[in-house]
Amino acid sequence: MDRTALVTGISGQDGSYLAELLLEKGYRVHGLIRRASSFNTDRIDHLYQDPHEEDVRLTLHYGDLTDGSQLARLIRAINPDEIYNLAAQSHVAVSFDQPQYTGNVGALGTVRLLEAIRETGIDTRLYQAGTSEMFGASPPPQHEDTPFRPRSPYAAAKLYAYWVVDNYREGYGMYAVNGILFNHESPRRHATFVTRKVTRAVARIIAGKDEKVYLGNLDAERDWGHARDYVRAMWMMLQQDTPRDFVIGTGESHTIRELCEVAFGRVGLDWQSFVEVDPRYFRPVEVERLQADPSRANSLLGWKPEVGFEELIEEMVAADLQAEGLTLDAARAVVAEKFTAGRR
Ligand code: NDP
Ligand code: GDR
């Protein structure tokens, strides 16, 4: 039997990988996209189907998590078996500049979606995109029972969403779960997040477009995995008999410094010559150390990441080099010619 899923945030990094996974599994996928004055569907263009084709598997709908009545109409019309709520203003630093909007989408948007499900009375399963940022100042390793100590408007909004999902599960018997996902990246990551900012800088420096990259706190530690592995965990969470929240991460953490070392090192460059600290990228309060304890997901879901930290960064460097028309060998040749000691 055909299964149907609705994905909010389908045009984002995770939405694109999740749409691929669900289509591969034979789902009909409906995605919510925002109307914008320019195209914002680059990450899913390869999946697009003309609505005039027969047996269309992917359908996009305009909508916004700030518009609750639209959500209810859509849910009634689609009657999805599964809903993945990935839409959010997802940038932590930006949430300090736009705290109300971040809360409107991340926190209230989630309760709008829950209310739409409740009012329409459909039988569905909801995945809510929770985050390791909710642990904030709690020391690692963080697991499902670690106290939440959020340190940004983004994290506070996600924590509100976490608790309403928990309330609706308990109060109304909904199948609704929180994934508490640690950082996950890919070549599709937006270039304002630190991994992609660094891997893109490597490629642009070699291509002669930039000379340096300016970063903020180099001491922060993150548990980075590959987005493709993490969307698999989202799907697995909705296939369980009992709805339950799960922490998803690799269990390994690295500093921003180490990230720079691996990314620049891949092409034979010493990162210290190209990275400068600019205090404008410091946050009013920072989450210093995140490292998952994913034991519950390992044992109950049987989930394990397939891609480790170095492989992830290498894939991202390769993709950014490719975007500049360079192979890894060509990049190393440029480094040998232009960036050898004494010639810079
Ligand atoms: P992205 O920022 O890449 O994608 C966010 C998506 O949300 C985009 O499709 C965006 O649309 C959409 N969106 C933003 N605001 C609205 C709105 N008001 N109404 C409808 N859609 C909106 O995030 P990721 O894919 O990286 O993350 C997916 C989710 O998982 C997010 O909720 C994020 O907070 C959470 N998360 C992410 C982690 C990570 O490391 N990537 C870790 C833990 C949680 P548009 O393309 O138009 O901007
Ligand atoms: P994060 O990711 O805040 O963890 O949120 P980000 O890549 O933005 O920052 C990670 C760490 O790197 C430090 N940092 C910088 N960050 C950015 N963006 N730009 C810089 O120049 C820079 N220099 C240092 C940050 O201070 C921070 O410590 C991501 C998002 O995807 C969230 O939506 C998600 O919930 C969490 O991951 C888990």
From TrEMBL:
Q: Which Gene3D superfamilies match?
A: NAD(P)-binding Rossmann-like Domain, UDP-galactose 4-epimerase, domain 1
Which keywords annotate this record?
A: Lyase, NADP
Q: Where is the NAD(P)-binding domain?
A: 6-316
Pfam name, any one:
GDP_Man_Dehyd
Q: Which domain of life is it from?
A: Bacteria
**Main role?**
Catalyzes the conversion of GDP-D-mannose to GDP-4-dehydro-6-deoxy-D-mannose.
Q: Which HAMAP family match?
A: GDP_Man_dehydratase (MF_00955)
Q: What is this protein called?
A: GDP-mannose 4,6-dehydratase
Question: What organism is the protein native to?
Answer: Egicoccus halophilus
Lineage, uppermost ranks:
Bacteria, Bacillati, Actinomycetota, Nitriliruptoria, Egicoccales
Primary gene name? gmd
